[in-house]
Give the backbone structure.
Amino acid sequence: MTIVELSAAADDQTETLQQAIDAAAARGGGIVSLAAGRHLCGPLRLRGGITLEIQKNALLVLDANYDRLLPNTVSVVAEGSDRALIVAQGQNGVTIRGEGDIVAPGRTFVVAKIPRRAPICPRRCGRASS
């Protein structure tokens, strides 16, 4: 089993991280582990047999540039988008684990306007119906 540990870096680590994933998969699988610190990256494609481990105090910070996600176009449209930050299409034995965090851009990618709705329980919530 291949184990690759990547140190945090100030620069974008997309290419380095994807190369580590691809190399481990080519050797039959393994663990790509992110050490504590900030790891900025764009779209990733996980391969079969790969575990992406995000260690304690590690942050996988995903780039908010929507255009960078074009290589990760998927067939499902969710929340107005057909692009994904992390993809594992057609793969088996893929795991993301660890005590660290994945920090995604959130609202940056919302294309459709989400209508504001009245509370479901206006009386119990202490609000009058609109």
The mean pLDDT is 79. Residues 84 and 122 are 36 Å apart (CA to CA). The longest helix spans residues 14-26. Residues 2-109 form a domain with the Pectate Lyase C-like fold (CATH 2.160.20.10).
